[in-house]
Amino acid sequence: MAGSGTNVVSRSSKESAGGIGRLTRGRRGRAARTIRQGELRTAALFIAPALALYALFMLIPFANSIYFSLTNWNGATALKEFVGLDNYIAMFRDPTLYLALRNNVVWIVLGTAAPVVLGLMLALVLWTVPRGALFFRTVFFLPFILPIVVVGLVWGWIYHPLFGVLNRVLATVGLESLGRGWLGDASTALVATLVAAIWGAFGFVTVLLYTALQNVNTDMVDAAKVDGATWFERARFVVIPAIAPVLTLVTAITLIGGFAVFDFILIMTGGGPGNASTVLGYYAYENGFELNRLGYGSALSMFITVLSLVAAVAFVKFRERER
Q1: What is the sign, positive or negative, of the torsion defined by CA atoms of 203, 208, 209, 215?
Q2: How far, in Å, CA of 267 to CA of 161, rounded?
Q3: Rounded distance, CA 131 to CA 240, Å?
Q4: Buried b / exposed e along 121-158 (16+ C-beta atoms within 10 A)
Q5: pTM, whole model, 2 decimals?
């Protein structure tokens, strides 16, 4: 009987201890949930201002652009006639669209490859020969921080047919026959504008890649040098793979910028002569704000957005697969 009493007391003690344990775990769980809820509220409080600004200046205008692209609206009257997909059907029947798209492809290919290749080469040189690197980084980055209006005007003076520096230099070296009105010639207007844009962009690429190079393991580079690898082999097989994520980011940013190019065209050529230098961004602006066809211009902007997203995602996927 005494043993039975002892067992009963023992079981009661265990049950009490188990109940206390469950109660303690329950309290701990509620406390953890309370802490998580507090953290979520704090995070939401910090995110809310930025999210509100993003919605105000990005999401709402984007939604409005989608709606405007489905209307026949001149941008001035209160009446917005809903036309469905008529603007998109007219867009794909517009021959100027394909001319602008062709010019955009040229801009994207050259305007992406040239700054990235030039910036990468300069960054490698500055990293390999550090003497004077700060001075040259500042000089290379200066065109990027200049207002695009200033860059466009300066290059407009360089290309001027009468007193431009380029024609004078050509005349000085005996190539006067090559001089022309570079921005007024349909065969050179787009490329001349593109050169100005490349000059304004390569410094940004150079500085970012030079910063990424500071994290490269120099022991691996030295080991490759001891094994007899040339400068180009070390750069190709050791250095560039080490900065691949930053190189991918810079290339994607430059690629997307090629779809959205507008400012250099507006400042330097106005899409001319004729439509020789018209690109999609300028054509959308021209229809929306100069011809008062805001619905059609919005449809063009949606087309540019889709192209940019598809190209950027495809490029990043390709780079990740290659890595």
Answers
A1: positive
A2: 17
A3: 21
A4: ebbbebbeeeeeeeebbeebbebbeeebeebbebbbeb
A5: 0.80
For residue 245, whether the previous peptide bond is cis, meaning omega lies within 30 degrees of 0, is: no
Q: Reduced to 3 states, what is the DSSP secondary structure of residue 164?
A: coil
**Looking at the 3D structure of the chain, how many domains does it have?**
2
Q: What is the DSSP letter of 76?
A: S
CA gap 32, 47 in Å, rounded: 22
**What are the 10-residue block averages of pLDDT along the chain, 323 residues in total?**
48 51 60 74 86 89 92 85 92 94 92 91 86 79 87 92 89 87 91 93 90 87 85 86 87 85 91 91 92 92 90 79 67
CA dist 207 and 120 (Å) reads 9
For residue 229, is it within any domain? Answer: yes
Residue with tokens 């900065």: 243
| Whether residue 98 is found in the same domain as residue 200 | yes
Residues 133, 191: Cα–Cα separation, whole Å: 30
DSSP-derived secondary structure letter, 129: S
In this structure, the answer to whether residues 177 and 263 fall within a common structural domain is yes
> Is 159 strand, coil or helix?
coil
The answer as to whether 157 is a domain residue is: yes
- The answer to whether residue 78 is domain-embedded is no
For 82, the enclosing helix (H) or strand (E) is: strand 81-82
